[in-house]
Design goal:
Length: about 70
């Protein structure tokens, strides 16, 4: 392999890594935005509606359990 070929390959690898990082960052930002939306909606639930709040909390627990299935760590 020539020096130019090696350098071009390294640039290609770098660009692929940058694209992956950008994709992950975008997905994380979307998830954080959705969490903010859900948190805001939960804060609007009246504490007098205990059953509705419990239902929402159970849904969040289930969501957290499903999220663990997708964790790569």
């Amino acid at each position: 392999m020539t020096l130019l070929t090696c350098t071009n390959k390294r640039v290609e690898i770098y660009q692929q890594s940058q694209q992956h990082i950008s994709t992950v960052l975008t997905e994380n930002e979307q998830a954080m935005t959705e969490l903010d939306r859900v948190t805001t909606q939960l804060s609007l639930i009246s504490s007098q509606q205990g059953m509705e709040l419990e239902t929402a909390m159970e849904e969040l627990r289930l969501l957290a359990q499903r999220a663990q299935k997708y964790s790569t760590r």
